[in-house]
Amino acid sequence: MSAERPLIGGHVSTRGGIDKAVDNAQRIGAEVFQTHPTPAQTWTPLRLDDIVLGVYKEKFARAGLRGHYLHAVYLVNLASPKAFLVKQSVGSLVHYMQLAERLEADGVVFHPGSHLGAGFEAMLPQMGAALREVVVRSATTRPLLLVENSAGSGGCIGCSLEEVARIVEGAASDRVAVCFDTQHAFASGYDVHTAEGVAHTLSELDRLIGFDHLALVHANDSRRELGSNVDRHANIGDGEIGSEGFRLLLADARVRRVPWILEVPGETQDGPDLVNVNRLRACAGRPPAQPEAVAAV
Ligand SMILES: [Zn+2]
Ligand SMILES: [Zn+2]
Q1: pLDDT, position 61
Q2: What is the pTM of this model?
Q3: Which of 63, 89, 152, 241 might form a disulfide with 159, Cβ 3.0–4.6 angstroms?
């Protein structure tokens, strides 16, 4: 397989079993993929049995895929002033990190959450302690815990790169890194649509977080305008960031180094598809993906 960068893929469904995600990734021409192994709106854990795990690993190896990231459930909120919710969030992330280890996945992406009015500074030490607890309790060796920047809304945490940087700093662990979502950045005022805006955003990423702490990009165009604070993803080239914004971002070797995962609606609203994978590949100057027929198992 080519060592061209960036590796490009998308979020895919695990309906029918985690091994089905591999088929779905292959179908859209992905080199890397992301999943919600459990329903994103519930705390229900996944009982992954060894037989399914074996099928998954075999399919993954055969497909020549290059990476798998898990996306934590949306209920996770390490900044909550409610102790029981923080405890539940830590438990859920520990479970996900352990799932990621068993799947030999690369990381678990989570949203920093909301302080619900208590304020960022007040909740920061609690977040650092919670992240350290996840790393220690999960006792994993491989997956990274990835803080995703937020689009920004009431009580939002991590809508600025400063806040994301301070969360990572507060965790004081080399297992905690960053996932940069292009739509969330645009919604929170980072103008990744223009050359000046891209240059500014990348220099802020470098200065505050450091590219050695950037592990993943979520590649999403934006249905809403710059600074809207609204989380609405558009297909690549159809939104306010536009193909030019992605070309500008992808021109930088420091961001091409990490995998890019689409979380866009897709042409038929079924999620990331081959059309969008290939639009992003075109922005990166890469030839279209030629997905092979998925082998029947
Ligand atoms: Zn996310
Ligand atoms: Zn995202």
Answers
A1: 96
A2: 0.96
A3: 152
